[in-house]
Amino acid sequence: MSPALQRTTCSTPINRRRHLRFPITAHAEYLLQGRRCAAVTRDVGSGGILIESTDVLPVGELVELCMDWPRRLDGRCPLRLVVAGEVLRSTSRGTAIRILRYEYRLAPKAPPDLQKLDQEAGKLARSS
Q1: DSSP secondary-structure letter at 15?
Q2: Which of the residues in the chain have pLDDT under 70?
């Protein structure tokens, strides 16, 4: 390789995505062919979401994905991001979903026993 080419070679990988992705890890679930399954988001952007689940999803399938949004509305109300998307690729390492439509919804209120557990977990986290 000529010295001129060596100087212009970049060791940092180039991000060719059209949309920025953000490393957001959150509980999610998807609905595919009438079946609801648990997942975890790994990164989220305006064009797509990368999730991990126990399934390898069929490429080209339409899915509905709901994820817990990391911020609350007015600092109080939990939100969920609801996405209609298409599976772009899926392996045992993760599934990439292209976002076709999305909306934010208020998250359903947790049953009282779960609320109490959440409060206790919050107290433990603050005292650590």
Answers
A1: -
A2: 1-19, 110-128
What's CA 26's distance to the chain center, in Å?
Answer: 6
Burial of 9 (0-12, 13-18, 19+ CB in 10 A): exposed
CA angle, corner 21, sides to 88 and 67, nearest 5? Answer: 70
Model pTM greater than 0.90? no
Domains of the chain by range and CATH?
16-123 (2.40.10.220)
| Nearest alpha carbon to residue 67 among 8, 22, 111 | 22
pLDDT digits (tens, 9 = 90+) for 89-105: 999 999 999 999 999 99
- Whether 106 and 79 have beta carbons less than 8 Å apart is answered as yes
HSE-CB at 104 with a 13 A cutoff on CA atoms is 9
